Amino acid sequence: MTAPNQPVKVTVTGAAGNIAYSLLWRIGAGEVFGPDTLVDLTLMDIPDNVQKVDGVAMELSDSALNKICNLHVTDDAQKAFDGTNAAFLVGAKPRGKGESRADMLEANGKIFIDQGRSINDHAADDVRVLVIGNPANTNTYIANKAAPDVGPEHFNALMRLDHNRTISMLSQKLDEHSSRFESIAVWGNHGDTMFPDIEYATVGGQPVKDRVERDWYVEEFIPRVAKRGSEIIEVRGRSSAASAASAAVDHMRDWVAGTEGKWVTSAVVSNGSYGVDEGLVFGLPVIGINGRWSVVEGLDLNEFQRERIDANIEALRAEAEIADKLF
Ligand code: NAD
Ligand code: LMR
C-alpha cells in the first residue's frame, strides 16, 4: 500500500474507547500490516476524551511495541486523516440493553459525514477505510457519500465479527476446528436481519449443510448469530470489544495481504450484484487479491437465500433513507 520501507499511516478514531484499547496493541505488534511494516499511528477522539487518549498513548509507548514509529493524538478530524493509508472508524456510541444497532443512526450518523469529508480532502490516494461504529453498514454508506472523490472500493464496514461468530458456532456444533471451514458468507446488514449462509460451506471438504438439521439452522443458528451482539451486551454488560478488535485486525490484514483464494465476509459498497441497490453497503462473500476485494459473483441463490438477502436490502434501504436526511 505504501512504498517499501515507508511507514503506513494509520488512524484509529474512538481511541479512548473499549475496542481501541485492544485494537491499538494488535496494530502496534504488527498483526495487521505485517512484521516488516512500521506504523505511524494517529489516535483520535472527541475533545472531552482526548486526555484519556493521552493516557492510552502513554501506555502504548510503555509497551515498546516495535512496529510503532510515530504516535500522534488529536481531536481534530481534519488532522486525523492527513495522509492516512488506513482508517479504522471506531468512534461512535455503542448501543445499550434493549436498543437496536439501527437506533444508533440518529446519534452516530453525523460523525461519518464529517469524517467522510475529511477523508475526502486529506487521506492518501490508496486509503482503506474500515467502519466499525454502529450501525456500521449505514455509517459506511454515509462516509462514502460524503467522500465523492474517493472511490467506493475504499470503504468497507466490519462484518468479519459476524463471519467469525458463524465459524465459531459451527465449530462448536460439529466439533470441528474452526480452520477446517471454508466458503462461509454472512450476507447483508450488521443488524438483526443478517444472513449467515451455509449453503456453500464445507468442513474438511464436506458440505456443512449435510451435517446440521435444517430446523437448527433456520430456527436457532441464524437468529443466534444475528443476536450475538445483544447476548454479549446482556452477559458482559457492555458491547463486544476484544472480539470486535480481533475481527477488525482480520479484516484489514486480509484486505491488504489477501486471502489466498479463501472466502471471507466484507460489507462493501454495492455495485448492483445480487440485486443489491448500488451504493448500499452490503455483506458479501469476497476474496482478497492484490490488495482489493473481489466479490464472489455468479452464485445461484435458492428461494430461501433470496428471501433473506431481500430482507437485508429492505432494512438497508430504510436506514439509507434516514441517513440521506442527515446531510
Ligand atoms: P466506547 O464507548 O468504549 O468508545 C467509543 C469512543 O468513541 C469514545 O471514546 C468516544 O468518545 C468516541 N467518539 C465518539 N464520537 C466520536 C467522534 N466524533 N470522533 C472520534 N471519536 C468519537 O465504544 P466501543 O465499545 O469502542 O464501540 C465503538 C463502536 O463500535 C460502537 O458504535 C459499537 O456499537 C461498535 N461496534 C461495532 C462492531 C461491529 O462488528 N461492527 C462490534 C462491536 C462494536
Ligand atoms: C456486536 O455485534 O457485538 C456489535 O455490533 C455491538 C452490538 O451492539 O451488538
From TrEMBL:
It comes from the Bacteria. It is an enzyme of class 1 (oxidoreductase). Substrate binds at residues 95, 101, 134, 165. Its EC number is 1.1.1.37. Keywords: NAD, Oxidoreductase, Tricarboxylic acid cycle. InterPro entries: L-lactate/malate_DH, Lactate/malate_DH_C, Lactate/malate_DH_N, Lactate_DH/Glyco_Ohase_4_C, Malate_DH_type2, NAD(P)-bd_dom_sf. Belongs to the LDH/MDH superfamily. MDH type 2 family. This is Malate dehydrogenase. The gene is mdh.
